[in-house]
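Exercise 4. Each item below gives a protein and its sequence. For each, produce the structure-token representation.

Item: 5-formyltetrahydrofolate cyclo-ligase (Autumnicola psychrophila).
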Amino acid sequence: MKKKFLRAKYKKLRLGLSKETIEDLSLQIANQLLTLPIWNYDFYHLFLSIAEQKEVETEPILHILQGKDKNVVLPKTDVPTNKLINYLLTDTTVIKRNRWNIPEPLDGIEINVDKIDVVFIPLLAFDKSGHRVGYGKGFYDKFLAACKEDVVKVGLSFFESEIEIEDTYQSDIPLDYCVTPENTYSFKKG
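Answer:
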């Protein structure tokens, strides 16, 4: 299936989820993450969920990271450049919703992309090869392309994988893992 159709299909499926279901599934995803070999790193990039889009709630993941004393890096969208600026989450970080209702840090200690070890990635759908479908704005595509080559890319999804996304590009950067409430998919080579 093509990205355009997958985007519409999964937006509709997510809109059908209740708040309670989202909370339950998000907690299951956080628990599944604990089985991944990703906890020996220092800097973890974590998106903050957009409630209106019924995204995976990342608060349970944030609690895990803080409990493991990890450095949490939060993205802020820079619309003119279509890039993400990354800020270290501290006790003084102020979170505010932007014009699209995305919760993000106002400012703070900026973290260079080459410091980031693990990226948790929002998505709408993914396939058996680790390709993903996002909202289509390209923020994460640009961000992942700027990250170091061995950054660990972890998608979070309420739904299981599609067989194939037909219209992927050579420049698309596949996930290393995708975690759903029921399964952990690994796409790492070797």
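Check: The longest strand covers residues 71-78.
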